[in-house]
Amino acid sequence: MARNTLDGPAITEALALLEGWALEHGATAIVKTYKFASFSEAFGFMTRAALAAETLDHHPEWFNSYNKVEVRLSTHSARGLTQLDFALAKAMDDIVDRRDSSRT
Ligand SMILES: C[C@H](O)[C@H](O)[C@H]1CNC2=NC(N)=NC(=O)C2=N1
């Protein structure tokens, strides 16, 4: 997947396809805070997200405190946002969606 930085309009378009992600000041990263019912669920999410990150060869910056996971996505090599950040954001959201739907 392309590691070229996205311009303003492309970022706006890509962000509109996601839920709960915000553009960080300076527009070089997107951020989202996930909240779970427990530490175990938060860490389960992080484990699955880590495997998705390895598959994409694109890795998050994140901070976990109990049931909260703060995620920051940016392409370090490009010093900005690329398709890879949005692909990982979508993969992380899909992991959460799958977890919710398997719990009916
Ligand atoms: C060699 C390897 O493809 C690179 O180091 C990858 C790994 N994961 C990465 N993750 C992120 N977020 N940015 C990068 O530039 C990056 N580069």
What is the CATH superfamily label? Transcriptional coactivator/pterin dehydratase
Class from secondary-structure proportions = alpha+beta
Largest sheet: 4 strands, antiparallel
Q: Work out the radius of gyration.
A: 14 Å
Total count of domains: 1
N-to-C order of helices and strands: HEEHEEH
Distance between the termini: 35 Å
Bound molecules: the ligand C[C@H](O)[C@H](O)[C@H]1CNC2=NC(N)=NC(=O)C2=N1
Strand order of the largest sheet: 1-2-4-3
Describe this structure in words.
By secondary structure, this protein is an alpha+beta fold. 44% of the residues lie in helices and 18% in strands. It has helices spanning 8-16, 39-56, 83-101; strands at 22-23, 30-35, 61-65, 68-73. It has a four-stranded antiparallel sheet with strand order 1-2-4-3, with helices on one face. The longest helix has 19 residues, at 83-101. The mean pLDDT is 95. The structure holds the ligand C[C@H](O)[C@H](O)[C@H]1CNC2=NC(N)=NC(=O)C2=N1. Ligand H2B binds at residues 57-59, 74-77.
Q: In a nutshell, what does this entry contain?
A:
It is built from 3 helices and 4 strands, in the order H-E-E-H-E-E-H. The protein is α+β, with helices and mostly antiparallel strands and 104 residues long. This is Putative pterin-4-alpha-carbinolamine dehydratase.
How are the secondary structure elements laid out?
Blueprint: H1 8-16, E1 22-23, E2 30-35, H2 39-56, E3 61-65, E4 68-73, H3 83-101
Antiparallel strand pairs: 1-2, 2-4, 3-4
Helix pairs in contact: 2-3
Catalytic activity: (4aS,6R)-4a-hydroxy-L-erythro-5,6,7,8-tetrahydrobiopterin = (6R)-L-erythro-6,7-dihydrobiopterin + H2O
Protein name: Putative pterin-4-alpha-carbinolamine dehydratase
Enzyme class: lyase
